[in-house]
Amino acid sequence: MTQHLPALRFSIAPMLDWTDRHCRYFHRQLTREALLYTEMVTTGAIIHGKGDYLAWSQEEQPVALQLGGSDPAALAQCARLAEARGYSEVNLNVGCPSDRVQNGRFGACLMGEAALVADCVKAMRDQLSIPVTVKTRIGIDEQDSYEFLCDFIRQVSEQGGCETFIIHARKAWLSGLSPKENREIPPLDYARVYQLKRDFPHLTMSINGGVKSLEEARTHLQHVDGVMMGREAYQNPGILAQVDRELFGSSQPAVDSVAVVRAMYPYIERELANGTYLGHITRHMLGLFQGIPGARQWRRYLSENAHKPGASIETVEQALALVADRVTATA
Q1: Which pLDDT does position 7 carry in this prediction?
Q2: Residue 34 and residue 206: Cα distance in Å, rounded?
Q3: What is the 3-class SS of 247-299, one letter each residue?
Q4: What number is the average pLDDT over the span 44-57?
Q5: Can you give the pLDDT at residue 329?
Q6: pTM for the structure as a whole
Q7: What backbone phi and psi angles, to 5 degrees, belong to 299?
Q8: For the purposes of burial, counting CB atoms within 10 Å of the CB of 275, is it exposed (0-12), middle (13-18) or buried (19 or more)?
Q9: N or C: where does the chain have the smaller number of CB atoms within 10 Å of the terminal CB?
C-alpha cells in the first residue's frame, strides 16, 4: 500500500464559488483533521491573472490546491508556486463538466485523454515533494464502461505516477446537462468505486458524491481509503464538528457552534480591516445552526444585514443573539 495522506480519510470537496479562503478558515474552526480544498483555480488565472489566486491562511492547514488545466508545463509551474506557498497537496481536476471548462480543455473531458493526464501528473510530480492527486468521474458520455475507467486509472497511475485518486461516483455528461444537473442526475455507483479499490489495492482511493452523513462516511471507509463530502458539508457545516471524534478518533470534545462563531471574530476583524465585506465571510456560516431553534432568524439577519456598509462584528453578535440562548453546547 502507498502511504496514505492522513487527512484524506475525510475531506471537503473543492466547490467553485463556495470553498474560498473564508469558507476554509471557517471550516477549520469545526474540524482540525479534515483535508480542505480550494476552489478549482485555472493555470491561466495563476500565471496571467492580476489577483493572488493562491492566497490562504496558515490556520487552514492541511489544505490542497485544486488546479484546472491541461498544459503540463503550465501545471508544473503553478504546482511549484503552490508548494512554495505551503499547500499540502496539488490536485488535478478531471471531473468538472461545465462548458467553460471544456472550452479550456480541462475538467471531465480529460478523462478521454488519459495519456495527457498522465503527462500532466508526471510534469507536476517531477517538480514537487508534496503529493499530486487526481479527482475524476467514473466515466464521460458513452465512455462509461468499467474497462474504460480501469484503463484511465492504470494509465495515469503507471505512466503519470499518480498514487491517489478521488473518484466522484457518477459519470459526467459533457453536453446536455448543466454542472448542477451533472451533480444530481447521473446515478451514483458506489459499488464501481469499491471495485476499483479492490482491483487497484496499491493505490489510495477516496470516494465522492452524495455523501450526507458521517454514518455514510463510515460505511464507505469499510471499502475505500477516504471520503470526500461536498454540498452537505457546506450547507450543514455543523456536521463537521463531529468529524474529528467520529472519523479520526480524537478525544477532544466537539466544538460548540456558538464558540465557533466567536472564534471567527479575530479573523473577521482582520479581514474587515483589509477591506473585505462582512457578507463575503458570513455567507459561508449561514447553515451552521441548521435544525436548531433560531437558525432561520440567524440566517435571515445575516443575509439582510451583513452586506450593508459598516457591517461589523456587532452585526454577527446581533445575529448570534437570536440563536445563542437556544443552543446547547455539545460535549
Answers
A1: 65
A2: 13
A3: HHCCCCCCCCHHHHHHHCHHHHHHHHHCCCCHHHHHHHHCCCCCCCCCHHHHH
A4: 93
A5: 40
A6: 0.93
A7: -60, -45
A8: exposed
A9: C
| Contact predicate 223/28, CB 8 Å | no
Residue whose C-alpha cell is 473585505: 276
CA distance linking residue 157 with residue 172, whole number of Å: 21
Which is nearest to 166 in space by CA: 98, 255, 92? Answer: 92
Tell me the CA distances in angstroms from 98 to 133, 135, 178, 201, one per residue in order: 21, 15, 7, 31
C-alpha cell, 25: 478558515
What is the model's pLDDT at position 312? 97
pLDDT band at 99; cut points 50, 70, 90: low
* The C-alpha cell that represents 173 in the structure block: 455528461
Q: CA angle at residue 258 from 254 to 264, to 5 degrees?
A: 95
**Distances, alpha carbon 163 to alpha carbons 52, 126, 205, in Å:** 29, 14, 9
Rounded to the nearest angstrom, the gap between the alpha carbon of residue 307 and the centroid of all alpha carbons in its chain is 26
Residue count of the chain, please give it. 331
Choose between 98 and 260: higher pLDDT.
Answer: 260
